[in-house]
Every structure is written in structure tokens, then in C-alpha cells.
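Is this the right way to post C-alpha cells for a design question? Let me know if I should format differently. Anyway, here goes:
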């Protein structure tokens, strides 16, 4: 059997663990030939389909992710049209809900896997060409063929069993009706012309439940598979599977059991990653610090790999006992990049979201994390959560700026299948897109137009606050000028900049011009940020900079670097008699940023 995996990602930098995680469990088998077509959302669907068709596979498999799902459907729809006999199977977090409607809507998909697939997919490969046996595989959802034919006696009786099914059918002339005796059976009927004696049921929906891997530590790690990609900027590692939290908007909020890998096994895998020359590791644990002792052991382990590896992980700011804080404070600079899931700074919003931990604990923990100079802490807010207003979102962004959060990520809520919040969407007054990525369109607390404003605010934060070159100035403006975010966002929107991909230089130029026209007290700081970012001294933000053969003042205060006569100097005046900033550039290199900075105060 030839199996082709569509490795579809948002961009080249991203890579899914699904392919190597599944392949590692079955790579010893010689009866399955694996092929991979790697592509991104930015590549031509036609080119991808042509590459798939060239392999003539028996099975096409893929993972459906929020932001690749639509592209994936275009690909497999065309592939199925070219190869009607190919089996198409999908998995991923989007199939944690009721999959019957999905399979009806997409007949090109033969089956979907709900839950964790390493064990169930391996068993399915044994019966891939025997659909009548798929019902034996946990987690597999599909429409099973029915072989029974209604007899004359069955049509005369009010209720009769149908061969090869566990369903009970009540039939009247010109009418079809079914009542399932098993919860997973839903009959589809094919009718002959009225008055005909033959009536044949065709398919029944089978729901395979939820597949879970209990012996998580017994799985072969994805890195063992030759299909694991080592040429990406980062790799992903699971040290724990499952989540203790019960967030109503998360696919992990359904009470998944927590399973942990032994520290020795994690160390062995990290050694291999280091040997491959990888620098960045993204730890996929839903809540890294759910168990303080485990978190401390992992942090000590990560420190063993400094400075060769850096780790990006999710941390719950409400769960930071003193023992965990003490270790965090002593870790080497740059070892951890923390994603602190805060979602909202409003108690009623967090209560509605069923997130564990009190708001007071979360805020205290977040302040602590943001105060640590050795770590980068990035805080998340989610627009579209029930009871969360746009005014509160603006206020929360300002609060996070005062905490000096390393990044502020503002996302829109996605109602994934299988989540409690999606099930309760109607009662909560949430309208959301029926198509991936299932984004919230409106709630009783935030209008559709306001959610679009929140999306634009997210782009502003990414372009300015989350960009090192412009962060310090943007933070000061957010904190000290209450109307800055509204006014700057309106400026970028009105001039059609907000949805354009802007270079670092262009972003800095727009910020300078805006400050010059609306907040002139920040103009000097905008020019300093421009210079230190290594931007051109011939552009508008450096319009007041003096260049040429300059003599240094005798009374400057050095802020960084060491002055040498070989340095090329420039001066940014802020007052009479040489007051202002002095910058020195290395004349022997092409480095655009200054290596020396001093100030003369009046």
C-alpha cells in the first residue's frame, strides 16, 4: 500500500509533529510505502495536486489545522476527483466534536480520526482496504456501507431489523424515517421510484469515540522517524500530554488525563536535538507548571543545555509557588521565552471561560514574570470571549504595558469543534464562522465592527509593541498617553497602512511622523529609536541629526560603548550648547547601528 501524507503548513518555518509522530510507530512495517508532499498555504493548489497525482497513492492522509484546513479541502477535493478510488483520511484537533455533519458535507473525505492517533492510526493501517472493519478502531468516524435489503415483510411491519445493521426502520409510502438503536448509527436511504418493491439502505454513520494514548511514555518519539524535519528554525517537543485546566474555549479543556515523560527520556531527546544544531525548542505542554515539582525538574534540565538551546513554553501565571519563582529567577538569560496565558484581566470573563486560578493570583504571577530581566514573557489576550468588551481590551493592553510584558498578543476567539464554548455558543449569544478558523463574529458584549477594530489593534501591537526597535517608545506612549492607541490606530487605518505588510523602516518612519504631528514631546525619543535601530540618517526621522566631522564634547555621559577617535560621530541636538545625544559608528565595518551612545545634559 502506498500512503501519501500532505504536509501542509502556514509557512516554511512551521512544521507539524503529526507526520513523524504517526510514522515513528509504524516505520518498521514494510507493507506500507510512505510518500510526503510538503507545501504551504502560499503555494499553488494545482502544483500540489499535480505532485500528489504523480505518486498515485492508495491512501491520502493529512492533519487539518485551523489556518490550513480550507486550503487542504481544495487540495484533497481535486485529488479525489482525479483518483476516485483513493482513501482520504484526516485527523487533528478540529475533529473533536460531532463529525457526522462534516463527513456529509465533504464526501471526498472517507474517514476522520478523533483524538490521539498514534495507536489508532497504526491499527487502521492493518484494515485500510476493509472498511467493514474500521468500526473496530477507536476514534475513527466514517460512513459504513450497509449490505441489507428490506424484505416485503419488513416493509409491511412497523418495525423490523435490517440485515448487517443494528438499526430499526419505520417505513411509510413516500416517506423515510429512522430511529437509531445505537447512538452512532444514522441511516441514509436510497429510494427507488414510487411503487417499487425494492428499498436499499446505503450507509450508516459510525462514531468511533475518542482515542487516547494511555502509555504516552511508551511511544517512539517523532525524532526517531526519518520523516522528521530537521531543517526548520525550531523543533517541537512534548514533555507532557493532557491538561488539568478546563478552559471552555480550548480543545484540551475536556479533561484529558495528564501523562508525563521521564526526565531521563527528555534529556536523551534534547541531546539529540542539540547534536543536530537546532537552537530553539518549543515545548508543547499545555500548562508547563501544572505540577511544581515537575516544572522545577524541567527548568533545571533546560538549564543544562544553555547556551546551546532556548525553550519556548506556556506557563500559567496563577500557578507560581515560591519554589517555582526562585528557580525562574536564577535561570540563565535568554533560556526561556514564556507564553503567559492570561486571556483577560477581568474576573467575570475568566469565570465564564472556566479557567482555573483566581484573577488576583494570575495578575500577581504575571507581574512577577514580567519583572524578571532574564526571561521574555509574552502575554495573551483573546477578543471575543463572553462578557469581554472592546473598552476593556484597550484597558488591558495598557495594564500589560505597565507590567512591561515582553510581547502582547491579541487574538480573536476561535470556537473549535468539541469545545464547551462552541456547544454553548447559542445560549452565550456568540455568532461565529461555520468555516475554519471558526472565528467569533459577534457577541452580546462586542459587535462585529468592534471585533474588526480589535483585529487591527492586534496588527498594531505586532508591528510596534512586539518589535524590539519600536517597543520602548510604543510602551511609553501607551502608558502615558491614554488616547495614543485609539489615535494611532485610526491614523494607520485611515491611511490604509494597517493591513499592509510594512518594512521595519517604514513602520519607524510612520511612528516618527505621527509623534511629530500629534505628540511632539516624543519626537526626540522617536529619532533615538530610529538611530539605534540602524536606520538611515538621510531619512525624515533623522532630519535633525548633525553629521560630518564632529568633535566630541568634554562633558558627555557615556551610556554604552567605549569612545575611540576612529568612530564616526553624529549628534542629535535637544538644546543649546551641544546638549543632546551623541552616537558613534564603527568606521571599519558595515554595521548600520551605532556601537557608542552618550548624552550631554543641560
Amino acid at each position: 500500500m502506498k500512503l501519501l501524507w500532505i504536509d501542509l503548513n502556514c509557512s516554511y518555518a512551521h512544521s507539524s509533529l503529526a507526520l513523524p509522530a504517526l510514522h515513528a510507530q509504524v516505520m518498521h512495517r514494510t507493507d506500507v510505502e510512505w510518500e510526503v508532499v510538503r507545501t504551504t498555504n502560499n503555494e499553488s493548489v494545482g502544483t500540489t495536486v499535480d505532485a500528489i497525482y504523480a505518486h498515485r497513492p492508495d491512501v491520502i492522509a493529512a492533519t487539518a489545522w485551523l489556518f490550513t484546513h480550507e486550503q487542504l479541502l481544495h487540495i484533497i477535493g481535486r485529488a479525489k476527483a482525479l483518483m476516485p478510488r483513493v482513501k482520504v483520511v484526516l485527523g487533528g484537533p478540529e475533529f473533536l466534536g460531532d463529525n457526522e455533519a462534516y463527513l456529509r458535507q465533504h464526501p471526498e473525505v472517507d474517514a476522520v480520526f478523533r483524538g490521539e492517533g498514534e495507536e489508532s492510526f497504526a491499527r487502521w493501517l492493518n484494515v485500510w482496504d476493509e472498511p467493514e472493519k474500521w468500526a473496530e478502531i477507536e476514534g475513527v468516524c466514517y460512513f459504513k456501507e450497509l449490505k441489507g435489503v428490506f424484505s416485503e415483510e419488513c416493509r409491511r411491519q412497523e418495525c423490523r431489523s435490517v440485515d448487517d445493521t443494528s438499526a430499526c426502520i419505520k417505513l411509510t409510502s413516500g416517506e423515510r424515517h429512522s430511529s437509531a438503536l445505537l447512538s452512532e448509527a444514522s441511516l441514509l436511504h436510497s429510494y427507488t421510484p414510487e411503487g417499487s418493491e425494492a428499498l436499499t439502505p446505503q450507509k450508516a454513520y459510525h462514531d468511533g469515540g475518542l482515542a487516547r494514548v494511555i502509555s504516552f511514555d511508551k511511544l517512539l518519539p517523532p525524532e526517531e522517524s526519518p520523516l522528521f524535519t530537521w531543517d526548520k528554525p525550531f523543533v517541537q517537543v512534548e514533555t507532557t500530554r493532557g491538561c488539568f485546566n478546563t478552559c471552555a474555549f480550548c480543545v484540551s479543556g475536556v479533561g484529558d488525563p495528564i501523562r508525563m515523560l521521564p526526565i531521563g527520556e527528555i534529556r536523551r531527546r534534547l541531546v539529540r536535538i542539540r547534536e543536530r544544531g537546532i537552537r530553539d525548542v518549543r515545548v508543547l505542554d499545555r500548562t508547563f507548571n501544572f505540577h511544581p515539582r515537575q516544572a522545577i525538574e524541567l527548568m533545571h534540565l533546560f538549564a543544562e543545555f544553555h547556551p546551546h538551546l532556548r525553550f519556548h513554553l506556556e506557563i500559567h501565571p496563577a500557578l507560581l509557588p515560591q519554589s517555582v519563582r526562585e528557580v525562574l529567577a536564577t535561570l540563565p538569560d535568554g533560556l526561556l521565552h514564556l507564553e503567559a496565558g492570561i486571556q483577560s484581566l477581568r474576573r467575570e470573563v475568566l469565570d465564564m471561560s472556566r479557567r482555573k486560578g483566581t484573577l488576583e493570583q494570575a495578575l500577581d504571577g504575571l507581574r512577577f514574570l514580567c519583572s524578571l530581566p532574564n526571561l521574555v514573557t509574552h502575554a495573551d489576550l483573546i477578543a471575543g470571549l463572553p462578557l469581554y468588551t472592546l473598552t476593556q481590551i484597550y484597558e488591558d493592553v495598557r495594564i500589560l504595558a505597565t507590567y512591561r510584558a515582553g510581547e502582547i498578543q491579541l487574538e480573536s476567539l476561535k470556537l473549535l469543534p468539541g469545545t464547551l464554548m462552541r456547544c454553548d455558543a447559542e445560549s452565550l449569544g456568540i455568532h461565529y464562522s461555520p468555516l475554519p478558523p471558526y472565528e467569533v463574529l459577534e457577541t452580546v458584549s462586542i459587535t462585529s465592527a468592534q471585533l474588526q477594530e480589535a483585529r487591527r489593534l492586534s496588527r498594531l501591537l505586532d508591528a510596534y509593541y512586539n518589535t524590539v526597535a519600536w517597543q520602548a517608545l510604543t510602551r511609553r506612549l501607551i502608558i502615558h498617553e491614554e488616547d495614543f492607541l485609539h489615535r494611532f490606530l485610526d491614523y494607520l487605518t485611515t491611511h490604509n497602512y494597517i493591513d499592509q505588510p510594512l518594512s521595519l523602516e517604514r513602520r519607524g518612519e510612520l511612528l516618527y511622523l505621527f509623534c511629530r504631528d500629534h505628540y511632539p514631546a516624543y519626537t526626540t525619543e522617536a529619532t533615538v529609536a530610529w538611530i539605534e535601530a540602524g536606520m538611515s540618517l538621510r531619512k525624515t526621522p533623522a532630519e535633525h541629526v548633525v553629521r560630518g566631522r564632529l568633535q566630541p564634547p568634554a562633558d558627555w555621559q557615556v551610556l554604552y560603548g567605549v569612545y575611540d577617535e576612529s568612530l564616526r560621530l553624529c549628534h542629535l541636538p535637544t538644546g543649546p550648547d551641544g546638549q543632546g545625544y551623541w552616537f558613534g559608528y564603527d568606521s571599519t565595518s558595515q554595521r548600520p547601528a551605532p556601537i557608542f551612545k552618550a548624552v550631554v545634559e543641560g
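Format looks fine. Someone answered above. Worth noting: Residues 152-206 form one domain. Residues 448-465 form the longest helix (18 residues).
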